[in-house]
Amino acid sequence: MSGYDDRDGQIWMDGKLVNWRDANVHILTHGLHYASSVFEGERAYSGKIFKSREHSERLKASANMIDFEIPWTVDEIEAAKKQVLEANGQTDAYVRAMAWRGAGEDMGVASARNPVRLAVATWEWGAYYGDAKLKGAKLDISKWKRPSPDTIPVHAKAAGLYMICTTSKHAAEAKGCSDALFMDYRGYVAEATGANIFFVKDGEVHTPKADCFLNGITRQTVISMLKDRKIKVHERHMDPAEMEEMQQCWLTGTAAEVTPVGQIGDYNFEVGALTRDISDSYEKLVRE
Fold it and tell me: Which residues are catalytic?
């Protein structure tokens, strides 16, 4: 497969469709140097983007959290996503909307005079963790920690927050793992590099409280599914040692969907009935 810079298709940029290979930015783009960039990852199923409007609203909110305004409305972002899918002839695809401070009059840390850019790309993307949906993903434990909310806008889906995700996932893959689990700045269990995490013990579900990391849209969806089943969900701070007592585990995210976890470090989990039920039910829900 060719690289992501060398493909056929169309990408929406700043109000119009451009050929995939021509969707470029200048080397002095502010977002490239100072991480003044936000994005969304979404999936279209049978031509419909799941929770599309919620993603567009979150993109706008993330931009505000890192101090810029996207000069397109939610409705305009929604229309752009639809336009790209149609132009690329895709019904089942990954959708990446992104906004950033571009090249302009400023090239220091401050960039208030630079234009804000917006783009939407779509491509076909299979299971994020490969065959882990069948046998359960294997996770490393990252040496990095999710930061405190008073150090960075932790609830924005911002590019800068993913730097330690990249390094952690590289380290995990070098050990034969699919991903890495972060603890937070207090030492509590937090999330994986691009997915939230859930545990099961004696028929009840435990998930870290999203007070210093992104409260994922898929996470919220799965919590609603569990509550609809009258399954008790504990959103709370979790000590890492508690993983010893947990029987099942799964990850949630737009890319990950619902992926079972079989191992985290020295802790092992079964791919049990509840995990399978939630995974299968989520697959049905997104296609309704």
Answer: 157
